[in-house]
Amino acid sequence: MAQPRAEIAEGGAGEVGERLRAARAKAGLTRRQLAALSATSERYLAHIEAGTANPTVGVLGSLAGALELAVADLLPLGGERSAIRAEAAAALRRLPEARLPAVLESLQQPAPYDQSKARRLVLVGLRGAGKSSLGSALAERLGVPFIELSKEVERAYGGEMRFLIELGGPGALRRYEHKAWEEVVARHEAAVIATPGGIVADAGLYDRILQSAHSVWLEASPDEHMSRVMAQGDFRPMASNRNAMDDLKAILAARAPDYARAEARLDTSAQDFDSTVDRLERVAAELLR
């Protein structure tokens, strides 16, 4: 028996495609990777993203499952009848399930985590924003440890993150990241912590991070992001993808609303390195006072 097609209004296929592209960009997945994770033809996936295909309910379910989203997150207006209802429903879907009872009780006063932020400062942002270099310099000035969450994950896993992702998939990576973050919080009352750029793809973990550490979004222009990554000796973005800059801009646009949840933000491409560290130190002083 053929699977039913999703009930998508005229013109809605284009919006489904846009939502799917944004979700894939936020997760940092290539089209080929998403196709493999969802058992969907890469060619068919390209047509869905272009808005020229009408996917079945099963295909939408597989894509949503691979991206760890609700199917409604891929539908125009999230399947709701009005824009305001869609916005409210989407906000609720982004919350980790553990938060929902408190939200239902009082939307204005969601229950905070018991763990205080202490003097922990977490740096979020896209790769190439300067989280490692600036974070290390700031930690030295503050006299606190500098911790890279990705290295904590690799230490716990016993191998590189790329192997963890290839062998275990996004779910395994998230389990290790959750565990690594909790261990950092348990061990350090004061620290500067750099997080991977894709940390925002895990709504529950990102919410936990923002609740248990003071946060700063380090941002830079797309050109700065790309040049810094390549200056680090990583030529893969350009070598394997002719549209690398377009992809980077799409990832940045998809993740920006989540990065913007940080308590402060700092443009790291607006001045030289020492001046940026000075500014970051002033931001940290305000947050940690």
Describe the structure concisely for a colleague.
The chain is 57% helix and 8% strand. The chain has helices spanning 12-27, 31-38, 42-50, 57-66, 83-94, 100-105, 131-142, 149-157, 161-187, 203-212, 222-231, 236-239, 244-259, 273-288; strands spanning 119-124, 146-148, 190-194, 214-219, 264-267.
Task: Write down the CATH class of the largest domain.
Answer: Alpha Beta
Give the CA-CA distance, first to last residue.
Answer: 64 Å
Spatial order of strands in the largest sheet: 2-3-1-4-5
Q: Which CATH architecture of the largest domain would you pick?
A: 3-Layer(aba) Sandwich
- Any idea of the CATH topology of the largest domain? Rossmann fold
Number of helices: 14
Features:
2 domains; 434 Repressor (Amino-terminal Domain); Rossmann fold; five-stranded parallel sheet; alpha/beta
Sequence-ordered SSE layout with sheet pairings:
Layout: H1 12-27, H2 31-38, H3 42-50, H4 57-66, H5 83-94, H6 100-105, E1 119-124, H7 131-142, E2 146-148, H8 149-157, H9 161-187, E3 190-194, H10 203-212, E4 214-219, H11 222-231, H12 236-239, H13 244-259, E5 264-267, H14 273-288
Parallel strand pairs: 1-3, 1-4, 2-3, 4-5
Walk me through the structure.
It contains 14 helices and five strands. It has two domains: 12-94, 434 Repressor (Amino-terminal Domain) (Orthogonal Bundle); 119-288, P-loop containing nucleotide triphosphate hydrolases (Rossmann fold). It has a five-stranded parallel sheet with strand order 2-3-1-4-5, with helices on both faces. The protein has helices at residues 12-27, 31-38, 42-50, 57-66, 83-94, 100-105, 131-142, 149-157, 161-187, 203-212, 222-231, 236-239, 244-259, 273-288, and strands at 119-124, 146-148, 190-194, 214-219, 264-267. By secondary structure, the chain is α/β, with parallel strands linked by helices.
